[in-house]
Amino acid sequence: MEVSRMRQIGTRARLCYAIAFWLLIAMGGSSLDAGVLRPETLVLRGGFSGGSPIGEEEMVDFHQADLAITARLPWEREIGTGWILGARLLASAGMLRGAQETKGLFTLVPLDVMFGRKDGLLAIDMGVGGALVSDYRFGQQNFGGPFQFVWTFGVTSRFLGPIGAGYHFQHYSDATIYGSDSRGADLHLFELIYWFGTGE
After folding, report:
1. Cα separation values, 73 from 82, 130, 149, 171, 183, Å
2. Can you give the three-state secondary structure of 135-177, one letter per residue?
3. What span, in angstroms and rounded, lies between the C-alpha atoms of 83 and 9?
4. Which element (helix H / strand E) includes 13?
5. How is the chain split into domains, by residue range?
6. Quick one: which of 9, 70, 10, 76 has its CA closest to 44?
7. Is the pLDDT of residue 5 over 60?
8. If we measure between CA atoms, which residue out of 62, 121, 129 comes closest to residue 97?
9. CA–CA separation, 104 vs 135, rounded Å?
């Protein structure tokens, strides 16, 4: 009974991830038709795994370092005075290290929804996308396969001209598409951010 229940949960999880992923891609594509991507930030990120609030605990400790770039999608709405609701695309390339093994890591978040102040002093965001890992085995922990779903949320602040900082929680999971024995990871990422075209 327990095995059957876990399979049902896994099937629902796979379906939800797949629907969300392709829906976000479609929404991102429709936004692109309305205008041109505008480069927004260049981000140097680094962080580590911790206790996993989503899914099962990691079997090894992970560290991540990468370089990310975001581009503002041509969809934006003013909320009250001095606040905006917008969307952006995020892509990154770097490394993921665990069990004394270092692997290449590439992510693409096609639609990252952002709410924040126009002056950039404070913004929160959340997005869903995908990742590719050059090798998905880290010692005794197996991610299941090279493709992983990515869910991320966090906060950023531009407080010194074009310079700012941020924090993001990033969850990697295959949503059991490779089987029930695979296991993802949760990372806490700390960021140094440069904003393009601030005019300051």
Report:
1. 19, 18, 21, 23, 33
2. CCEECCEECCCCEEEEEEEEEEEEEECCEEEEEEEEEEECCCC
3. 39
4. helix 2-32
5. 2-195
6. 70
7. no
8. 62
9. 8
d(CA 147, CA 124): 26
Place of tokens 């295959």: 174
Contact between 149 and 172 under an 8 Å Cβ cutoff? The reply is yes
Average pLDDT of the chain, as a whole number: 84
pLDDT of 28 strictly over 50: no
Beta strands 83-98 and 62-78, pairing class: antiparallel
Question: 104-116, pLDDT tens digit by residue?
Answer: 999 999 999 999 9
Which CATH topology does 2-195 take? Porin (2.40.160)
CA 171 vs CA 58, 119, 152: distances in Å: 11, 29, 6
Supply the pTM of this predicted model: 0.80
